[in-house]
Aminopeptidase N (Daphnia galeata), 1113 residues
Amino acid sequence: MKTSRNLQFLIVLIAVSSAFGFGIQSNYEGPDQVELSLLEPAIVLDPVDGISRWWYTPSRKAHIFRHNYPKNVETKPKQGEDLRLPGNILPRLYNIRLLPFIEVGNWTTDGYVEISVDCIISTVNISINSLDLTIDQASITVTDELTGSPIPVINFIDEQSTRELITLQVAQPLTVGGRYKITMKYISILNTLLTGFYRSDYEENGETKYLAVSDFEATSARRAFPCFDEPTMKANFTVTLGRKETWTSASNMPLIRTEPMVGVPGFVWDYYETSVTMSTYLVAFLVSEFVGIPSDPGLSNVEFRIWARADARNLTDYARNIGPRVLEFFESFYAIDYPLPKQDMAAIPDFAAGAMENWGLITYREQYLLTDPSTASARSFQFAAIIIAHELSHQWFGNLVTMDWWNALWLNEGFASYMEYIGTDAVEPDFKMNDQFIIENLQYVFGVDALETSRPINIEVNTPAEINSMFDAISYEKGSCVIRMCADFIGFDTFQRGLTRYLNDNAYSNAGQDNLWAALQTQADLENVVLPATIKEIMDTWTYKMGFPFITVTRDYQTGGALVTQERFLLRKSNDSTDPIVYQWWVPLTYTSDYTQTTKRDWLPVDQVSKTLSNLGASANQWVIFNIDQQNYYRVAYDTANYALIRDQLMMDHQQFSDNNRGQLVDDAFNLALVELIPYATALDLTLYLKYERDYVPWHAVLTELNYIDTMLYNFVEFPNWKNYMTSIVEPYYTSIGFAETQSDPHLEKLSRIDAMNWACRLGVADCVQNSLSTYALLMSQPENLLQIVSPNEKSTILRTAIENGGQTEYDFAFNQYKATGDNSFLVAMCASKQATVLSGLLEMLLDPNSGILRSDVNTVFNNIANNPIGNELALDFLINRWNDIQNALGVTYFPTWYRYVCTRQNTQAGLDKLIQLRDAHLIILGNSNSVKQGIETVETNIKWVSLNEGEIGTWLVANQPARMPKMLYEQQTSKESDKTCNKIRYISSNIWPFKPSVNTGPLTRTLLIHASHLNMKLGLIILFGLVAIAAIQPVAETAAVPVDDVAMEAEDSAIDMMPDESALKIIMHKLEHWLKKCYKKGGCREDYGHHSYGHQSYGYGSYGHGGYGYGK
């Protein structure tokens, strides 16, 4: 009878599902994160809930964990507290039984739930969260567990569509302290919304296969079973899953047994152990044809397994290796054993989030868990590692101890976003993730938090829409930054022990941020850590106020002290702000003038705008750096003299500063210049040293800032000088790394090569362009060997460069590869063409369904053409002139997003006028779009930037153009002995240092011209073997503001004039004074590897100061 009754329900629901379209697969459409990342600033999609702030810049990683549901998920206006459960009944134990029917035409799930509850406040109303469930009201029972007596249910109130609740009214009040059991049967639908208990599909051997999987965070457990769906209402869960006997299932806990399903041939029940106490959003189900691939048991004492498609077994190796090792590390770090007997990780084809930390069964979007060694880039492996570490850290922060409400989501996500770096660094030290923190998290979130429309980390939220809006850069990246700052000012070891105290104190329960501060305070007190206020008082200023300060350091060079002030850093200030908050913080100050000494520390109190530090411990001619390793959440501005000292030290020996501080210096400087707090000339001065920089973090930190200038200057007269300057600093970086990648290259070298190649080829550096063309030509001859010919790390640059510098043959090959393989990296490369006719043709192809461009890729094409400096105006004109054709071919969906795309590069009043006219001509579609509003604001900001900064930057570029040597003298070789001396000795006490290049002459000349800079040049003796001449040394250009870049040496007699072409000269320069005093008076040893000479390959070993190239005239 039970089977027959279930079948009757199924027949009815099949009809219902057909009527409502549940059987139709719907896919999430819209720009993916790769496309979004191509824009500067990143675009923000229009909100679907009417609440989200459109001006938020998306988190770099929050999108991985945020649940991006399809656009057809409706959200209705709701009242805050009215959606919360009353708290008079609390759950203790759930017994959940689910039988999902995973077949085309039948996506129903037969569900049954028993909930054992405790009565906290006497009531006759039992309110339970439920959404989109068909409740069998006749099956509902309420029983007194102590007596076994049933309590009649006299009314059933269904508010699922308005409040996501059902309410059972019982005949008699439940008594305080009483224990009751609630049971009911229901039917749910395996939806395509990627939330709740939903269905997914994939292709295997040409066959479409399906699975059922859950994703409950934040408020979707109620879509799978009636429950008390709030994080504080923790309980134990006993799960039973039905499946076909040839399939598999998984849940949070280990499988106990499997039994045949009585009356349903071919089906079985899987019974799972009762879970530990946890919140509903952490419950997980998976029913599929996946295979479970175990990890090496020697890696962890916890059973570890990856669930994946059968044909993806070979892509699980990296996750199976790194996952158990990260888990072991966290057990050691927290000094708390992992509480469950097993840990599964499942790769899901369609997943709204990038990953979800379900306790014992973590689910991932496939591309974030599965890695193919033959196609995955270095960044892909890094991404997989940090996401795995992020989710595993949640097993303690979030699962063992859960935030008490979603306003404190940052306690979960901020900690996981911090611990992912520590966990990954422990198992992949070559990644140097702790060094990468500032460029991946801190400097990025500064851009979000520097807006007046940011938000505090901790704010009140109530509705599901408000809760989902918390999964942003503030919770993730900013949360991680303030935690990292706290760890620094109390001491990392103290912090670590304080975390263990916090986790032990609140295990299997809930906590707020005050519980964390209390645990850390207790530990700090035990270890005699001295602070100017309590940890709560300090940290509340960072969690309850949005934004962050910039600290201005104005040194007193007479007394050795400094005045330090704090002020909120804003990218844009509104004139009509009514915000009453006083934006001051407890600011931990760290500073040094010598990294070999102990870091000096002080505090700027929350009630003080400024404070005088009496002694910085630095002499008047010594630099001072604040915010050591950028551990703290603020920017720093200096007085002019200190910037000059920093600039000179960078030129002399940049490694006197840490990698992080070098990255901080350039990032801070350009952002301070952006808002007119310092001159752009000061920021650009700090880039002079980059020709010697070889480390990834400082370069990656500055490239975003330089890219913006590059974009803004492209159509202006300053651009040729800009391109020359950029080439002069990028080419040495590229040359030092080289084009060819080897398997033994360190991880950061691979990432450095990505940046260096991208810019070198973009700037037209011959070696990069030629190697890219050669590689592409080889690929054209052997397309089947793509994986052997092109490194995944270099692929995008090589393809793009070949299209930029190639012809029709290269373009046609790319298009054919795209059509044959579906690899849209070839399509993206096609959009890099420099030929307007080609780009216009691509735009036209978007309107032709038979063009060969997939509908899913039309957005990618338009985005990349709009970001092509040649294609930007073409894209705007296409949008203006072909509006009706676009609408007929593609509908209206893309218009606001495409409008936003074309705005990024626009920076003239004429461009703004065209955009406003376009908006006004289509007000119905564009008039209320937040993406359009953001686009117009972007153009207005760009126009203002150009008017303020074009002239200053242009003047600086004229004064800092790299010198070009006459092609009269060619360097053959530079002394290796000189190089070794240079590498080993930073300061030469002797006033003699030999620079011994061997050179050849070209045409007859009397003058030798050698690059030199920041050298105090004195009259010296030039010995020409075979000839002797006394030379007068004088600078070519000499001003107070510009370093000397060249030195001309005139021979006193005409002997040189009589030397034949190509005769060898050996030049020894004596009497070079290397002790340089004060500004432009103190030089440092430099290494310049791999410079190309005119006519001969040289080794380019440097001399003091900027470095000597050894070319002569």
